[in-house]
Amino acid sequence: MLGIIDVGGGMRDVFGAGVLDYCLDHSIQFDYCLGVSAGASNLIGYLAQQPGRSKTFYTDYAFRDDYMGVKHYKETGDFINLDYIYGTLSNHDGEYPLDLDRVKASSARFVIVATDAFTGEATYFTKDDLAQDRYGAIAASACVPVVNRPLAFQGGHYVDGGVSDPIPIEKAQADGVTKTVVILTRPKDYFRRPRRDLYFVLRLRREYPALARALSKRAETYNRQLRRILADGNTLVIAPKSTLHMKTLKLDLEKMNILYDEGYKKGAQIEKWLAR
Fold first, then answer.
1. I want to staple 204 with a disulfide (CB 3.0 to 4.6 A). Which of 67, 196, 199, 212 is the partner?
2. Which H or E element spans position 199?
3. H-helix or E-strand containing 103?
4. Which residues pair with 182 in a beta bridge?
5. How far apart are CA 229 and CA 256, in angstroms?
6. How far apart are CA 98 and CA 146, in angstroms?
7. What tens digit of pLDDT does each residue of 15-73 get?
8. Is 110 strand, coil or helix?
9. Is the alpha carbon torsion for 251, 257, 262, 267 positive or negative?
10. CA–CA distances in Å: residue 157 to residues 35, 134, 143, 263
11. Where do the DSSP E strands lie in the chain?
12. Which residues are catalytic?
């Protein structure tokens, strides 16, 4: 079974949007799609067969005050306006409706990773958790801790799936995937440092201690999973040569277009790899 994993990375994952648009334009199909955070958003656009949709969100909508920013944070306590992204814009009557019927009709399995805010453990949602104008599973996976409050969904509270399962290769293989394409949004030789997460760990440890512990182990988990995919002959890793100093929530249209174009070009690696 052929699978693809998009690990997300906020605004950097416009790179993944480019890879997946190449796949749409060249009819590259996967049996299994697993998305983390922004990666889940990219993959649902791929499954909906809406090329260019994800890019529009990164390079157009993200620059709107309604999308994210300090103003929204002061008003609501959430920096990223998930209701606007996965509701106002994406609903059937929104500015760029998601074609959920195509997502549901796709033969590919779709798995979405989120992190339980109270246990710190990974939760895996599927297409069965999606309904017309109800995209909470995707929003939960993209809920960045600290800058956003945990998102309430189906009786639980969730944050970014990358906290608990940043490169979910074990999940994919446990589900039967034998060949995997993994989209990273940092170079292949980038290994996380635990101190990068320290500020967020300290902010979370009182109200969400289990989540803080999971976040404190994220670098260790990411690095272990990265070594695994780099050593696996049945895994193709596609990554940008540089992040261009793009941070998770940084808005820079020129750099976003560069990353998108690089991702689109590197999508050709998938055809060559599958043809071997």
1. 212
2. helix 198-204
3. helix 100-105
4. 5, 237
5. 26
6. 28
7. 999 999 999 999 999 999 999 999 999 999 999 999 999 999 999 999 999 999 998 89
8. strand
9. positive
10. 18, 16, 10, 33
11. 2-6, 32-36, 109-116, 122-126, 151-153, 156-160, 179-183, 235-238
12. 37, 160
